[in-house]
UniProtKB/TrEMBL annotation:
Residues 374-619 form the Penicillin-binding protein transpeptidase domain. This is Penicillin-binding protein 1A. Residues 9-182 form the Glycosyl transferase family domain. SUPFAM superfamilies: beta-lactamase/transpeptidase-like, Lysozyme-like. Pfam families: PCB_OB, Transgly, Transpeptidase. The gene is mrcA. Keywords: Antibiotic resistance, Carboxypeptidase, Cell inner membrane, Cell membrane, Cell shape, Cell wall biogenesis/degradation, Glycosyltransferase, Hydrolase, Membrane, Multifunctional enzyme, Peptidoglycan synthesis, Protease, Signal-anchor, Transferase, Transmembrane, Transmembrane helix. It is a single-pass type II membrane protein. Pathway: Cell wall biogenesis; peptidoglycan biosynthesis. Its EC number is 2.4.99.28, 3.4.16.4. Residues 268-371 form the Penicillin-binding protein OB-like domain.
Length: 699
């Protein structure tokens, strides 16, 4: 199965594996010899366990720090087919017993054939025939001596010796294998001289797809599997998603930058690991290679091992063998780890595994984030998802925070409570008292509650519009108290929120329930499109291997009155108030976009555990979230406006580039008076239906 973006860029391929089985007689002799030279040159002499090899490795491991293994090809077959990779005595004994059993039941040629067809060689390639096609774009029978040696270096560590990701290290290992082949008489001196200088043409596009959309690809795979089950992987489906390459890449970069900016504000935690690194360069290189294999790179954030460290300079080696130096501003973030009095486990020293990033022409020390984030953007007319990033790095954390993270929305939920009040007769100019309030356990569904405003300040009577602009908790609570928590719960379910996740208590006014970023995108789209509920969707169509359409999306749209969930006038008034949040309130950073047609709301939960921004222009809605997987304080000064909003802005700078500024027409049934908008049936001076005749202020 292949997954594409809306503009036909390949996002991912799914199948059981990339494998092309070949018979022993079809495997070229040079490929067999290259494998035997590096993996098991006594393969045809031992009975499954090489006692001479074990003794040789044992002596080496006692006398040097360059550790060697002694597993035969037969043992590797036993391990790869039947056992785990855990390093235990019990597993090793099973491996030896199975190797003997295999040797009793298969010929040597059969064992080697099995090995060469099933060994994993990176890039989802199993077997040397598949690897030849993926790395060199040619049939196994056509490979040269030099190419065979390169492929033979992969089984030991496919990531470390991958010629696409680590060309320098892969070449060093290839040269060593060529020397071994010459020493063992597998190739002649003339063949060796030609092979060692041969320029290899690696298929560099085999390493990655052209777009960072790993979470999108996995969502698409799950959706297709729900419908087609195992046929998903065998029928050659082409799946076309709604995302576009440029917007997806913009969202990906914006989210990662937002997270790294947060990390830089919160101090250096120290190296990821510290190992003993001997002065012997050859031995040290082997240790560096093995250790960094356990610390995979994350796009442009690379793992490196320190070889020299001082307060003014750090030298380190990358996983591809490149040696780098970090000085000046590149050390500032990790300065605490370079001090002489730094705790041993936080000190940057020889043997420390650190993270580096190339900024311009200079390297800087950074660290892998612990915090997570999510971003999703969708078309407000039909819900087509335009960009989706479910976390910092899919390869390190496959949990999709856009669809799977149920988090408290905090103040970003308030607009839905305000919207409910408009249906109960309140208006943007209804006066609400921003003063302290307290409740007993029966009103909150738990314990007695004495809520506070985020900034601890109370300003007394103010308009509902101002209360939302300033995100006043007391105003939201009094609004929900007036309309009724049960009504508030039922009303907000119109936007797609689950009642069971948002109990009917007054804490709902402050977003104490649970939502996902994807739900928030669909909910805010209602305000953007004039009152229609559209459901975010990802797959536009599926075709078979011959291009015949076998499934086509038929989304709900904002043009269908059957999808209306709130009055057009309600959506208009909410949009007006949410624009004020950008103009005068907690989202003024968005003014940098220089557009009067954007609106949205920040959200920061109690103890700054979740940070949100949900906002939109008439055509696009976007939601950004940041928080820890195991909820904890993001920092006392961290807010949705400081963490999530910058991600949203970065995306919208690109997404809105070609969209003209749009003014929203005033719908029928709305009047303008006293500098604000009102329902025609609730003009200025009228008593809101939710209030008793003698009430002036909602106390």
């Amino acid at each position: 199965m292949r997954v594409f973006s809306a503009d036909n860029v390949l996002i991912a391929e799914f199948g059981e594996e990339r494998r092309n089985v070949v018979h022993f007689s079809e495997i070229p002799d040079v490929m067999k010899k290259a494998v035997l030279a590096i993996e098991d040159d006594r393969f045809y002499e031992h009975g499954g366990v090489d006692y001479i090899g074990i003794a040789r490795a044992a002596i080496n491991n006692v006398t040097t720090s360059n550790k060697q293994g002694a597993s035969t090809i037969t043992q590797q077959v036993a391990r790869n087919f039947f056992l785990s990779t855990e390093q235990t005595i019990k597993r090793k004994i099973y491996e030896i017993l199975l190797a003997w059993k295999i040797e009793q039941n298969l010929t040597k040629d059969q064992i080697l054939e099995v090995y060469m067809n099933q060994i994993y060689l990176g890039q989802r390639a199993y077997g040397f025939s598949s690897a030849a096609q993926i790395y060199f774009g040619k049939s196994l029978k056509d490979i040269t001596v030099a190419e065979a040696a390169m492929l033979a270096g992969l089984p030991k560590a496919p990531s470390a010796y991958n010629p696409v990701a680590n060309p320098k290290r892969a070449t060093v290992r290839q040269q060593y294998i060529l020397q071994r082949m010459k020493q063992l008489g597998y190739i002649t001196e003339a063949q060796y001289e030609v092979a060692k200088v041969e320029k290899l043409h690696i298929k560099t596009n085999s390493a990655e797809f052209a777009i960072h959309a790993e979470y999108v690809a996995e969502m698409a795979r799950q959706l297709v599997y729900e419908q087609f089950k195992e046929d998903t992987y065998t029928h050659g489906f082409n799946v076309y998603t709604t995302i576009t390459k440029e917007e997806q890449e913009t969202a990906y970069a914006a989210l990662r930058k937002g997270i790294l900016d947060y990390e830089r504000r919160h101090g250096y935690r120290g190296p990821e690991a510290i190992v003993e690194l001997p002065r012997n360069k050859e031995v040290a290189d082997e240790i560096i290679e093995k250790e960094l294999a356990d610390h995979p790179d994350s796009d442009d954030i690379l793992a490196a091992m320190v070889t020299e460290a001082s307060p003014t300079s750090v030298k380190a080696t990358l996983s591809n063998g490149e040696e780098i130096q970090i000085t000046g501003a590149g050390l500032s973030f990790a300065a605490s780890g370079l001090k002489a009095n730094a705790p041993p486990n936080k000190r940057i020293q020889r043997g420390a595994v650190i993270r580096v990033i190339l900024e311009g022409k200079n390297w800087s020390i950074i660290q892998m984030p612990e915090v997570q984030s999510a971003f999703v953007a969708a078309d407000t007319h039909d819900g087509a998802i335009r960009a989706l990033v479910g976390g910092f790095d899919y390869n390190l954390n496959k949990f999709n925070h856009v669809t799977q993270a149920w988090r408290q929305p905090g103040s970003s939920f308030k607009p839905f409570i305000y919207s409910s009040s408009l249906e109960r007769g309140l208006s943007p100019q209804t006066i609400i008292n921003d003063s302290p309030i307290s409740f007993d356990a029966g009103q909150t569904g738990g314990q007695a509650w004495e809520p506070k405003n985020y900034d601890g300040k109370y300003e007394g009577p103010m308009s509902m519009r101002k209360g939302l602009t300033k995100s006043k908790n007391m105003v939201s609570i009094r609004i929900l108290q007036k309309v009724g928590a049960k009504y508030g719960q039922e009303y907000t379910s119109r936007f797609g929120f689950l009642p069971e996740k948002n109990p009917p208590y007054l804490t709902l006014a402050l977003g104490a329930g649970a939502v996902t970023p994807l739900q928030m995108a669909g909910a805010y789209a209602v305000f953007a499109n004039g009152g229609y509920k559209v459901n975010p969707y990802l797959i536009s169509k599926i075709t078979d291997s011959e291009g015949k359409v076998i499934a086509q999306a038929k989304p709900d749209t904002a043009a269908d009155e059957a999808n209306r969930v709130i009055d057009e006038r309600n959506a208009f008034l909410m949009d007006s108030m949410l624009r004020d949040v950008v103009r005068f309130g907690t989202a003024t950073k968005a003014l940098s976009l220089k557009r009067p047609d954007i609106a949205g709301k920040t959200g920061t939960t109690n103890d700054s555990i979740d940070a949100w921004f949900a906002g939109y222009q008439a055509k696009i809605v976007g939601v950004a979230w940041m928080g820890y997987d195991q909820p904890r304080n993001l920092g006392n000064r961290e807010t949705g406006g400081g963490l999530a909003l910058p991600i949203w802005i970065s995306y919208m700078q690109r997404a809105l580039r070609d969209i003209p500024i749009m003014e929203r027409p005033i719908p029928n049934g709305i009047i303008q008076a006293e500098g604000d908008y009102f329902y025609v049936e609730n003009p200025p001076g009228s008593v809101p239906r939710a209030l008793n005749a003698d009430e002036v202020i909602i106390e």
